[in-house]
Amino acid sequence: MEQAFGKVILLGEHAVVYGRPAIAAALPRGATARAEAEPAGPLLAVPAWGALVGPADSSDLGRAFSAVLGWLGAGEARCRVVAQPSIPAGGGLGCSAAVGVAVARALGAFLGRPLDVGEASAAGLAWERVIHGNPSGIDNAVAAGGGVGVYRRGQPLRQISLGLTVGLAIGDTGTRGSTRAMVESVARQRERRPEAVEKLLDAIGALVESGVAALERGHLRVLGQHLDLNQALLASLLVSTAEIEELCAIARGAGAFGAKLTGGGGGGSVIAVAERPNEIVQAWSSQGYAGFAVELGCQ
Ligand code: PMV
Fold it and tell me: Of 137, 158, 179, at which residue does a domain stop?
């Protein structure tokens, strides 16, 4: 069984599409995939999505599968890949990249050519280009490599050593966002008012730079303030929603050092940095929102 990680973006989504840095952390869950012999292959099944496609299928999934097969030169592989995501699609947790990387690894293993991290990430990027249109590459880099790191478009993930364990609560707004739609919306705003949007992107980039220092020194309170500021800037880019703001407010009210959306926005997930993340998850739960806690730095 081949695996790939889901991820949260601690700071920097959207700006990372335009060359600014972002900090991402792998989640202990993501996706798994395995490939078995199938004379009618290549085929891809994702039972959780009720999907069974071949590379000639015109759906996004079929075209993404075809892109990965093309990257691997495996268009004739007589196999069926079965992929299982363990995070929600459209939840801002990098589900599609995790599935893409797991599928690429399963194909590589089937062909007797196991992929290294760089290859798995590159094959995942081919997949993401179909699903997301203009991906920065952060999701596939973390899906393949894991850990916590700083990412810049076109460069490998640079791992950070954390100053201490970071407690993170991850809450689900219950609404699904389309990363492609959100990335396109920011692109349209950038065309319409380039100066204002470039300033917002620069401000996010600057937050990421000082956020790295906070993480390395283990200053959770300072990191939390960075999350709050980043959330305000993301709201200015119109990728926040009423539910996202509500989850952030609940988290702050329950003692979080800071909270923000994570991933594409427009729905999906919220993250909160807290000393006791389980208390944030409980506060969300008492208001009808699902969530879970993770500890970064000890996966
Ligand atoms: O929604 P997700 O989990 O795919 O995260 C997208 C992150 C963006 O910065 C909005 C897009 C990207 O490709 O970096």
Answer: 158
Residues belonging to the active site: 139
99 beta partners: none
Distance 139 CA to ligand 1 centre (A): 7
- pLDDT digit string, tens, across residues 113-131: 999 999 999 999 999 999 9
Q: 41 is in which domain, residue-wise?
A: 2-158
For the chain, how many structural domains are there in total?
2
At residue 96's C-alpha, the angle toward residues 30 and 81, to 5°, is 80
Same domain, 12 and 46: yes
Tell whether 120 and 136 lie within a shared domain: yes
State residue 299's pLDDT score: 43
- Integer Cα distance of 206 and 231 in angstroms: 14
pLDDT in tens, 102-112: 999 999 999 99
Torsion of CA 248, 253, 258, 262, to 10 degrees: -20
Q: How far is the CA of 137 from the centre of ligand 1 (A)?
A: 8
pLDDT score for 102: 98
CB of 264 shorter than 6 A to ligand 1: yes
Q: Are strands 43-46 and 79-85 parallel, antiparallel or unpaired?
A: parallel
